[in-house]
Amino acid sequence: MEKNRQNNRIKAVFLDRDGTINIDKKGYVHDPDDFELYPFSAQAINIINKLDYLVFVVTNQSGIARAYYTLEDLKAIHLKMNKSLREAGARIDEIFFSPYHKEGSVEPFDIDHEDRKPGLGLFKKAFQKYHFEIKKSYMIGDKYTDIEFGKRAGLKTILLLTGDGENEFLNNRNNWIYKPDFIVKNLLAAAKLISKFGE
Length: 199
Ligand SMILES: [Mg+2]
Prior knowledge:
The chain is of the alpha/beta class. 36% of the residues lie in helices and 15% in strands. It has helices spanning 2-7, 41-50, 71-87, 121-130, 144-153, 165-172, 187-197, and strands at 11-15, 53-60, 94-98, 138-141, 156-160, 182-184. The structure holds magnesium ion.
């Protein structure tokens, strides 16, 4: 971080969570016991850490608005995620989440909100706090909405084929307005790609 500041080269990698870092179980992981990292996630994030990128998680968690789980449940899951990754030598700098959905039932989250990807609310929060160089930064995720979010923010984008990614690619790619810069099989392949091509 200090070194980055001195070189004026703060850069960031944004990661989606479900289907990117952990196995997406029907879209709504709500119990820490059900939370399962992909076996390669810690290695991948460690590679990104060593390349001096800040690592942010940006995740839609509309299950809170929909009353499938609570903010406390989400906090417990994120504690587990951070702990598991830390024990394996990987570091996430900050997690940004959106609990909103307009079809939800839980106030005050039952609204349309810019924080919900592909809205840019979470990106703006990260940028205001960390002031990274957008053009040197990446968004990695398994859904088209992750790519749309990244592209609209000005980030380089990587679509993964884990989670919903293969389905997105096979069935929806003709409808994409924003094309991913890269498509790779999983988060580890994405980390290796960044280490090869960097900025
Ligand atoms: Mg996802």
